[in-house]
Amino acid sequence: MSGLDIEALLTDADTRIIVCCGSGGVGKTTTAAALGLRAAEAGRRTVVLTIDPARRLAQSMGLSELDNVPRRVKGVETTGGGELHAMMLDMKRTFDEVVLAHTDPGRAEEIFANPFYQAMSSSFSGTQEYMAMEKLSQLRAADEWDLIIVDTPPSRSALDFLDAPQNLARFLDGRLLKLLLAPAKTGGRGVLKVMSGTFSLFSRVITKILGNQLLDDVSTFVAALDSMFGGFRERAQRTYDLLKTPGTAFVVVAAPEPDAVREASYFADRLLAEGMPLAGLVLNRVHATEAPGLSAADALDAAEKLDRTGESPLTAEVLRIHAGLSRLVERERRIAAGFTTAHPDVPIVEVPAEAEDVHDLDGLRRVGSALASTA
Q1: 185 and 53 in contact (C-beta within 8 Å)?
Q2: For residues 161 and 141, what is the distance between their CA atoms, to the nearest angstrom?
Q3: Which residues lie across from 253 on neighbouring strands?
Q4: What's the rounded Cα separation, in Å, for the pair 133 and 112?
Q5: Listing from the earlier edge strand, what are the strands of the sheet with 278-286?
Q6: Beta bridge partners of 21
Q7: What are the helix and strand counts (H, E) for the chain?
């Protein structure tokens, strides 16, 4: 097992995208922010895109809020022209941007007013993944950034955006979509007036389930979708292919807890199976002892001897604290070994546990230094 060289990763001009993924509560957002700050202070123009709706990223960077537009972070200490910006994915706004970019303003207003579009753009399963891929594509295509860091959602679905091109292709090529498009391609007449034969039977079933108005809304939206998203699937595929290039690095983040390490193994397996460039694992919040040569058992024996003699109760208490910490360190090592045994070739960097939560740039700098110094 080798060490993950974070400093080399951040300062390599060929590294253009870093994707951080991991389960919830492991410090993934803090890690993404710390990486972004360190890259910016090394002279790179950096943007951190979070798909996690929590406010931790904004708070740690001293921003009152984040939205779909990159916001510059003040207080970055750099002399090399580096800048740090942060933003949070707004999937509906990104969907609106796609509509505006691929249709005329009048048609766009009709689409925005469509009830089915309003539902799909804000709450349909899979929309977030499509729009995450779209936003990453937009950022990369603009070529304004030396480095883009993506903070994925804190769940196993964090890598669902890798499936976006295939899911979108299945949707656009699906039988249901083709049936819904059929009326629009016959001349734009009312959806129920032109149905006949098999499609008429299909329409009666769907109308009974959805209702006449909703079926019209869906058909109208799908007709717009047919022309509006001519290049959407291709862009999603290009972005997927971009993620497989050497200019991208995936960093899995975990804490030394059984569930988190299990999820980290899942992420690593998925990335390796997809042929994605897995840079390594960040093992966060790792504990250490200042006297590694003194075992927990020996410390407890010494404390008991002091108790029997009544000498130095303070020393005895310190020895018991050391014993507890030593046991925690040993437990974390056993848990981490589950990952290293399964993935012996994946580089790892350990980040010591902080005494308190990170909530400002100074805290992010400490985390960044720990990431770099343990390479």
Answers
A1: no
A2: 18
A3: 282
A4: 21
A5: 71-72, 83-88, 45-50, 147-151, 17-21, 248-254, 278-286, 348-352
A6: 252
A7: 16, 8
Evaluate whether 267 touches 21 at the Cβ level (below 8 Å): yes
Q: Are 266 and 156 in contact (CB under 8 A)?
A: yes
Would you call 150 helix, strand, or coil by DSSP? Answer: strand
Length of the chain equals 375
Element (H, E) at 332: helix 313-342
| Residue type (1 letter), 217 | D
pLDDT tens figures, 343-358: 999 999 999 998 788 8
Q: What DSSP element (H or E) covers 72? A: strand 71-72
Tokens for 327?
């046991």
Residue 79: count of CB within 10 angstroms of its CB: 7
CB 286 within 8 A of CB 261: no
Q: For the chain, how far is it from start to end, CA to CA, in angstroms?
A: 12
| Burial (0-12, 13-18, 19+ Cβ within 10 Å), 130 | buried
- Check pLDDT > 60 for residue 134: yes
Quick one: residue 196, left, alpha or beta (phi over 0 = left, psi -120 to 50 = alpha)? beta
pTM beyond cutoff 0.85: no
**Token match 């020393």: residue?**
315
122 and 138 Cβ atoms separated by less than 8 Å: no
pLDDT tens per residue, range 251-261:
999 999 999 99
Q: Which residue has the tokens 């123009």?
A: 45
pLDDT beyond 50 at 310:
yes
Residue type, 369: S
DSSP assignment, residue 4? -
